[in-house]
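User: Fold this one for me? It's Nucleotide-binding protein.
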Amino acid sequence: MRFVILTGLSGAGKTQTIRNLEDLGFFCVDNLPPTVIPKFAEACYQTNGNIDKIALVIDIRGGKFFDDLFESLTFLKEQGYMYEILFLEASDEVLVKRYKESRRKHPLAPEGRVLNGIATERKKLKDVRERADHIINTTKLSARELTEEINNIYAEEGQMETKLMITVLSFGFKYGIPVDSDLVFDVRFLPNPYYIPELKQYSGNEKPVRDYVLDFEGTIVFIEKLQDMLEFLIPNYKKEGKRQLIVSIGCTGGRHRSVAIANKIYEILEQSGYSVNIDHRDIYEDVNRGGGKL
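Assistant: Here's what I get for Nucleotide-binding protein.
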């Protein structure tokens, strides 16, 4: 079992770090009172491997309970429970800037200067820092660089590569652009099957409409250009640590053109080996509501 005590200066990046550890499969608990650590550790070790990676955030937010940390760590060592301490820190200037940007009060200086709170916190954490197994200074680290640091220390083989889940989503503009979209493409420039009597009843999931939409020269060129764009963007999104990408393709009602093209893009991405889902948000909206342009 890997048992990590995450601590350090307020504003140094513990919130992001705990999220990174969660992404790596750690069971994470924030602001656990140190007096509870022994019983918590005992319970976790008794799961017979069901919980094998644990991270606890322990810091001065615990108030007087924080002073019990060393006593709890001593107990863990005596019981043979292995643990490691990850300590985060940053320069005074950067910490002050982060507090001013977030407009939060420092827990050790709620009514006073942030700088005074930081100085007091450094003194209280001095002994913990000296016992740390890993110390990360986040002064000059971007969010992506901090993630890389955490991965370098805690990622297992096969976890280093960012897993990006792509969803290709068709929709109708008349029902609004999906709020979670990362990329939005408008295919209303293509001829509308809605105005073809023998096609109106079908959706883009069915062959008559699919063949009609995909046979246009404009569709072929559009798909080629979109594929080229995605092949450029996806590796760069992964490099920056993005884990979910929503590619939304819209037509008027979300039943014909957007569905056919979304399906085609989904097939291309799947054949390229990406993790991809397909979702047709509005495919039945106009049918359910009794008509309108599709």
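One thing worth pointing out: The chain has eleven helices and nine strands.
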